[in-house]
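Chapter review: from sequence to fold.
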Amino acid sequence: MAYVVTQSCCADASCVVACPVNCIHPAPGEPGFGTTEMVYVDATACVGCGACATACPVGAMVPDAALTTKQLPFLDLNAAYYDAFPHADRTPVALVPQQRRLTRPGPFRVAVVGAGPAGLYTADELLKHPEVAGVDVYDRLRTPYGLVRHGVAPDHASTKLVTRLFEAIERQPRFRYFLDVEVGAPGAITLADLRAHYDAVVYAVGASSDRSLGIPGEELAGSVAATALVGWYNGHPDQQALDVPLDHERAVVVGNGNVALDVARILSRPLDVLERTDLAPGPLDQLRASKVREVVVLGRRGPAQAAFTVPELIGLAALDDVDVVVEADPALLSGDDQRSVLLRELAERPVDPASTRRRIVLAFAASPVEILGNGGRVTGVRVARNELVTDADGSVRAVATDDIRTLAAGLVVRSVGHRGTPVADLPFDERTATVPHHQGRVEPGIYVVGWIKRGPVGFIGTNKTDAQETVETILDDLDAGLPAPTGSAGAIGALVSERHPGSADLAAWQRLDAAERERGARAGRPRAKITDVAEQRTLAAPPAGVRRRGLLRRTVSLTS
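The token string follows.
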């Protein structure tokens, strides 16, 4: 019996370290790690011990004997990797480097701005070193976990299991939260404040904006960024008033990455499926009244160049509650790459003309040239057919033709990528939309990690490798000698309380988390997200007559 990876994995390599026979690749340090769409299990070497399944934070490892019919394509996907990359020269066990020890004893304190995966992986890496006396994680929201909470699609519940790992990180005794604290805002805690109280400051603020299409009509009501729409249905407080018109039978999604497929699924799947997820209550009510029957996903190039990953496509093809249709020139589906093969099989599926299911149309070699409107609202999209041109270097580009059609639609979702935004008091590269750095160092004492460092690429676990690089740079600088902070852990706690009297600690987050789970359980859901900030503060408050002793204890223990 061999194990099989059955979804887009988080790529944090926990399974690689756990495997006693080194049969999971690419591993850290090998070509492809962090850039391939998943890791792969070598069935000929796997001994079926299940160590990988225990270590996997998202439940992606399944014994081949337990695969469902829908999961069978992953068996071939895992095997195909080893056909191309045999890894015959691998060591019998994965090599784990010896734990580094600092030459200077500390104690050191580090602030991390951003409580998403990048920030929490960074905190975890830092806390592996006993010389680091404490890590304080700041976030402007009262809820941590970043895009795992506000970005992962509600119907991808297994991916959200990575929060169990985050819960283990935040329970470490030298870890502390300062939530509902927007660093750098007017009247708020500033970078100067952090530098005065910590040996190092790490920014893990992500990429919260979106790329523009650059076409007429983009500003019309009903033309929304995927970043905003995803935040809307995932309960991000900033997006709950988003105008999402669902009164037309067609929606158009521009772009064909994983986020585009997420959006298409959420707009298309039946209510009984969505009601079993943690989709935010307000948006769920709006989706109950949705008239959308078809979602067209536009990709400017061909199937082989599609931005979505193969595991996501396999998951989409396996849905039995939505019709998936491929709209492409048959010549574009003739390739032998995995995407083309899967899409060709999808295109050959018979379509039941009597089907009452909603449908997702994957359209290729198609680009929007104008978003149409009437009275300031979206009414449709003009779409050009593209010709694909292969350049001398082998890259394929789309060239628009004069063959243009109009798709009537009431909602257009722009899903062509995230983009970072400038960070207060830090340099910013407008071209890459990142903070300039060298291996995470902006300057000695100030560092970046995650999307604001490398751009919006990679998976959840990619942030672990990224965090390791940044932390290694921090340790180098601590060993070389950084200016010692003048303020203590207690002093920064008092300053946060003064400037942000409503800030939340770990205990407050745990109370809010418990309230959401309790509400969800009453409705047969994993949680019912609370999106109103005032209600979040009320529910997270300590019970009457109970002092916030946990924070006080930590303040004392971390004071130096």
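Two observations follow directly from the output. The longest helix spans residues 462-480. Confidence is low (pLDDT under 50) at residues 548-560.
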